[in-house]
């Protein structure tokens, strides 16, 4: 090796070492030294820089959390306004932050060529073409870095797009061991381990739809300018994985179609397969999806399947099964999102909703018993009423007979009908028979009056 070549290689190695130190330093500042101590920055030929576990990491652990380095409050579009906005945001960073940002992978080929032409037109007439070209190239590269490494984040005002120093160093895998989610409450991007990660293992996330075959995923990953070589794409079980994921995709589409309430949309986008008509048949499919997600190790996809299983079992009236799948979903939510995020609230609310159904169901036996008792009381009251009605009819008959006898006795004693009615007006109905009996054969007016007056009191 010539001395000049050796010197050049030494300088390149020194520059690489310096770059790595800057990246490590900026990542530690972004996520905190305690979290950074569990990570190791490594460079590989096929992937570039990536983050590896420096210690064993347990499933569900929050590996790190990070605030955005560059944030725009909209989706990243290929427009001059977005290019200039990103450029201004990058220019506000300190020198080492800018260096760390610009060392992120950039897929410049994904940028619309019209942007460069439009920028050339915008700067037309400026004397120093070299300076203009350098400025344009820098802005385009900064935007390419942003577009290649950006994540969508949930903001109060809608959807935003952000680049992070640590999160953007995470490489892709179609069988990821980490899950990223933006915690709107904290304003931080969170990374949780979806399975146990051993020291020395690379920490990976996904960039694409995992319910696709390896060839479909490869086509989608071209926008980042790399091919995935994970076990699901190139491993010994890749073909079996493809079969499972194809089936998972079909079930997922069938569920989405079944849940869709827009008849026009359903008419335009009928999937290859649809769920069975009966709820028991639908359950077979959604439980199959949950099982396949588990076999593929796709935790976030399994969350969706668990919720579907829970909802379908509720439809079927099997609350015990609905609770079982809801509980699995809540546990998996905590693994993927931690204990304080909006998805956790949603899962907890679903548990509460199931609890209310359970409370109602618990009330139902008591309510049924109460209704039976009420019906029995009604029957008893009806029977008593009928008995009373019969007794009243009998009494009425007796009283009518008694009144006739009393009237005859009163008239026999020389009293008028009006006098008789006046005398009888104060006598209780139940005493009429007694009056009738005592007046039998009596024709003395005063005696009749005396008997009636006695029984009236």
UniProtKB/TrEMBL annotation:
Pfam families in alphabetical order: SET
Domain SET: 37-208
UniProt cross-references to SMART domains, sorted A to Z: SET
Name of the protein in its database record: SET domain-containing protein
């Amino acid at each position: 090796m010539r001395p000049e070549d050796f010197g050049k290689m030494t300088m390149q190695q020194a520059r690489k070492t310096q770059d790595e130190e800057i990246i490590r330093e900026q990542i530690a500042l972004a996520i905190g030294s305690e979290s950074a101590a569990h990570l190791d920055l490594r460079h590989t030929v096929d992937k570039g820089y990536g983050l590896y576990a420096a210690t064993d990491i347990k499933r569900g652990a929050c590996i790190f959390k990070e605030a955005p380095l560059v944030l725009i409050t909209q989706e990243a579009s290929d427009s001059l306004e977005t290019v200039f906005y990103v450029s201004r945001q990058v220019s506000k960073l300190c020198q080492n932050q800018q260096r760390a940002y610009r060392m992120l992978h950039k897929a410049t080929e994904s940028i619309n060529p019209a942007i460069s032409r439009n920028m050339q037109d915008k700067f037309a007439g400026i004397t120093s073409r070299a300076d203009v070209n350098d400025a344009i190239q820098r802005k385009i590269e900064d935007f390419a870095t942003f577009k290649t490494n950006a994540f969508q984040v949930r903001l109060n005002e809608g959807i935003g797009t952000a680049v992070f120093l640590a999160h953007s160093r995470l490489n892709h895998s179609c069988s990821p061991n980490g899950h990223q989610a933006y915690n709107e409450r904290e304003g931080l991007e969170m990374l949780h381990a979806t399975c146990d990660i051993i020291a020395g293992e690379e920490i990976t996330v996904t960039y694409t739809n995992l319910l696709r075959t390896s060839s479909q995923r490869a086509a989608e990953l071209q926008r980042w300018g790399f091919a995935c070589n994970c076990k699901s794409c190139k491993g010994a079980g890749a073909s079996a994985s493809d079969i499972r994921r194809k089936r998972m995709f079909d079930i997922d589409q069938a569920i989405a179609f079944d849940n869709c309430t827009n008849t026009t949309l359903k008419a335009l986008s009928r999937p290859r397969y649809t769920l069975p008509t009966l709820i028991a048949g639908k359950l077979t499919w959604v439980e199959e999806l949950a099982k396949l997600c588990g076999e593929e190790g796709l935790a976030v996809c399994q969350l969706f399947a668990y919720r579907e299983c829970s909802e379908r079992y509720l439809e079927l009236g099997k609350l015990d099964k609905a609770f079982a799948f809801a509980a699995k979903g809540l546990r998996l939510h905590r693994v993927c999102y931690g204990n304080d995020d909006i998805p956790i609230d949603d899962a907890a609310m679903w548990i509460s909703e199931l609890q209310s159904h359970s409370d109602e169901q618990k009330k139902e036996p008591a309510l049924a018993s109460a209704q039976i008792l009420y019906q029995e009381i009604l029957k008893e009251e009806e029977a008593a009423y009928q008995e009373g009605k019969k007794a009243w009819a009998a009494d009425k008959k007796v009283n009518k007979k008694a009144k006739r006898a009393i009237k005859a006795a009163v008239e026999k004693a020389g009293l008028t009908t009006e006098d008789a009615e006046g005398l009888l007006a104060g006598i209780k109905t139940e005493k009429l028979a007694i009056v009738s009996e005592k007046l039998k054969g009596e024709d003395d007016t005063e005696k009749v009056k005396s008997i009636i007056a006695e029984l009236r009191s």
